[in-house]
User: Which sequence fits this backbone?
């Protein structure tokens, strides 16, 4: 009898070890696979995502399954998703698109609360917030999004970092703007300029206490203290001396900028309107380059400054991925394919974002109509510091607290 129990016990033990060691025993399974729930694992297998993603993609099968699913639900941080949905609907009238556009914090709050409650309504997510998307939502214990990368992406995206670990669909620049009607040429060429007395109360920026993009802009600059130290010496002709308690040139720049009393506004719309108003002598920081399209429409008069030392601004990224346990994963894949574009139509459902200052990181993608001569993703990217998800995650609150401590209005 003891031998029987021993044999049965060993069999059960080996079954458990086999189940728990699945990630180690199968090639291609990530190290965090065993931290997922059985429901997540089963869904990933059925949806053919993660370790179950095939080498090639049978788009005819996916399209058939997507039409059987009959609908697709997207949460987007951009209202331009409405136009993208219309593009998709015209091409696939059998698939209903439900889209919801939110401010980024509202999108994340709703998405998180639904997942926590076990509600899986949304199929794919189009959102920024590099820190949370990469460091919180991509892996357990809070895995909420799955990467879906097609062969077209691997063949045409400019570099692997634009799709690994999560697909970046849009690169946009947060720029420095001025009013060309008020100045014959760009009035600043160095970030230290905005710390000078003549720019007191004349620099507009979104409130970094409430706007994640303004906070990310400032936090990214803190990643480059050496470059800011060199820029200081180029501007003032002497080495930078740090104030007591200030750790490096990044925080010295931030302290000097804050003490020069920038004007905090609610949004980059307000930055564009304030800088672009008739007779305005102000400049704007951290506003999205895409606001330049307002100039092309005759609504304001703003122009981005490309030649600023050490950076003309920052790069921010918008991610596209399939929501965990999405009810319509094939329809989501089909929509993502349309966003990626084809060889015949490289822009595709991305067209609402194909505007000045917004770029798909696809090699050879033509710049949008209205971009300044020679201003392409390839030429602009070296001038704009890229947001680093880990650095933002580790330092964002520190920068926010520094602002809160020093900003007096």
Assistant:
């Amino acid at each position: 009898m003891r031998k029987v129990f021993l044999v049965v016990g060993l069999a059960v033990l080996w079954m458990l070890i086999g189940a728990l060691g699945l990630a180690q025993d199968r090639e291609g399974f990530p190290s965090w696979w065993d931290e997922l729930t059985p429901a997540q694992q089963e869904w990933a297998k059925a949806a053919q995502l993660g370790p179950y993603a095939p080498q090639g993609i049978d788009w005819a099968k996916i399209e058939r399954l997507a039409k059987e699913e009959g609908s697709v639900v997207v949460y987007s941080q951009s209202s331009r998703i409405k136009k993208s949905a219309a593009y998709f609907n015209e091409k696939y009238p059998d698939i209903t698109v439900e889209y919801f556009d939110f401010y980024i914090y509202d999108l994340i709050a709703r998405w998180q609360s639904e997942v926590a409650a076990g509600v899986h309504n949304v199929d794919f997510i189009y959102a920024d917030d590099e820190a949370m998307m990469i460091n919180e939502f991509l892996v357990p214990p809070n895995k909420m999004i799955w990467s879906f990368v097609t062969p077209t992406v691997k063949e045409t995206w400019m570099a692997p970092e634009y799709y690994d670990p999560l697909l970046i669909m849009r690169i946009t620049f947060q720029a420095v703007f001025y009013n060309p009607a008020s100045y014959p040429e760009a009035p600043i060429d160095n970030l230290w300029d905005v710390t000078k007395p003549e720019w007191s109360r004349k620099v507009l920026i979104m409130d970094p206490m409430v706007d994640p993009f303004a906070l990310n802009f400032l936090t990214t600059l803190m990643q480059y203290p050496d470059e800011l130290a060199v820029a200081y010496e180029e501007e003032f002709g002497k080495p930078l001396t740090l104030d007591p308690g200030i750790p490096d040139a990044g925080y010295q720049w931030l302290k000097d900028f804050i003490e020069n009393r920038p004007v905090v506004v609610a949004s980059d719309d307000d930055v564009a309107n304030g800088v672009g108003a008739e007779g305005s002598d102000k400049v704007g920081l951290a506003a999205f380059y895409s606001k330049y399209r307002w100039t092309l429409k005759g609504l304001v008069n703003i122009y981005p400054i490309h030649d600023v030392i050490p950076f003309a601004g920052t790069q921010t990224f918008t991610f596209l991925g399939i929501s965990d346990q999405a009810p319509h994963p094939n329809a989501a894949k089909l929509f993502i394919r349309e966003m990626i574009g084809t060889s015949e139509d490289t822009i595709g459902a991305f067209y609402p974002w194909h505007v000045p200052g917004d770029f798909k990181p696809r090699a050879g993608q033509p710049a949008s109509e209205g971009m300044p001569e020679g201003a392409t993703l390839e030429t602009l990217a070296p001038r704009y510091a890229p947001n680093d998800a880990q650095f933002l995650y580790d330092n964002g609150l520190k920068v926010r607290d520094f602002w809160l401590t020093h900003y007096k209005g």
Remarks:
- The mean pLDDT is 93.
